[in-house]
Amino acid sequence: MTPLSAEKRLAREGALDARARAHAGGAGAARQAAGHVLEAMNAARACGTVSAYLAIRSEIDAMPLMLALSGLRIPVALPVIVGRGQPLGFRLWTPGAPLDPGPFGTSVPRDGAEVEPDILIVPMLAFDARCHRLGYGGGFYDRTIARLRSRGPVHAFGLAYAGQQMPRLPVEATDMQLDAVVTENGVIRPEQLADEALPG
Ligand SMILES: Nc1nc2c(c(=O)[nH]1)N(C=O)[C@@H](CNc1ccc(C(=O)N[C@@H](CCC(=O)O)C(=O)O)cc1)CN2
Ligand SMILES: Nc1ncnc2c1ncn2[C@@H]1O[C@H](COP(=O)(O)OP(=O)(O)OP(=O)(O)O)[C@@H](O)[C@H]1O
């Protein structure tokens, strides 16, 4: 294990605790965040298919957003684990669509068509002011964002509780920066830190 992955593992422990505390605050945050995602999409002129997620553990619920998008006739997709070390696949979802159990407590639409999303709504353990993200460590979203960005423009918006912000996350070369992180308090765009251009 490299020192950086050990650092990430430590950060994950603190992040799980902070997220669980934020989650105990109730369902209002998920509804507020959903409204801010729609604002962020409008501001970025982002349109097309939106991939979201079915929350596991203490992730902020994306369902209010998914229902709002469906109501606006915007196509919604859900991630599918294709294999270890592989980018995620995506299947179309509609409210009430039958689901099959997937790995790690996830659920996937049973018979949704496979699609390529234009907008990714990304769950996480933690984020920082530069919109770097810490996930569960599978590297699934990093590989997925890298692949989609290599093919064309894609918007990657993190969705999180404001309480999931951390001072500064450890960053590996493969870690993708998000275009924004949306919380119940609004939209956070990546902050350019003064020392970012310096080596080390
Ligand atoms: N709601 C949701 N759906 C999602 C993701 C996600 O983060 N959240 N994913 C984002 O990639 C993918 C699923 N990937 C996941 C990868 C690991 C774990 C997880 O719980 N890992 C365990 C370690 C398990 C093990 O190593 O055996 C852990 O963190 O304790 C969960 C989801 C696709 N769907
Ligand atoms: N595009 C990529 N190509 C090759 N390896 C990658 C890529 N992206 C990430 N990885 C590797 O995957 C492993 C896990 O990455 P990381 O710790 O960033 O996962 P994560 O972002 O927390 O997980 P997830 O995205 O699944 O929630 C790391 O060893 C990382 O180097």
UniProtKB/TrEMBL annotation:
One of its GO terms (biological process) is tetrahydrofolate interconversion. The keyword Magnesium applies. Its EC number is 6.3.3.2. InterPro entries: FTHF_cligase, FTHF_cligase-like_sf, NagB/RpiA_transferase-like. Keywords: ATP-binding, Ligase, Magnesium, Metal-binding, Nucleotide-binding. GO terms for molecular function: 5-formyltetrahydrofolate cyclo-ligase activity; ATP binding; metal ion binding. It catalyses: (6S)-5-formyl-5,6,7,8-tetrahydrofolate + ATP = (6R)-5,10-methenyltetrahydrofolate + ADP + phosphate. Substrate binds at L54, E59. ATP binds at K8, R9, L10, A11, R12, R133, L134, G135, Y136, G137, G138, G139, F140, Y141. SUPFAM superfamilies: NagB/RpiA/CoA transferase-like. Its cofactor is Mg(2+). PANTHER family: 5-FORMYLTETRAHYDROFOLATE CYCLO-LIGASE, ATPASE INHIBITOR/5-FORMYLTETRAHYDROFOLATE CYCLO-LIGASE. NCBIfam families: MTHFS_bact. Belongs to the 5-formyltetrahydrofolate cyclo-ligase family. This is 5-formyltetrahydrofolate cyclo-ligase. It comes from Amaricoccus macauensis. The lineage of its organism: Bacteria, Pseudomonadati, Pseudomonadota, Alphaproteobacteria, Rhodobacterales.
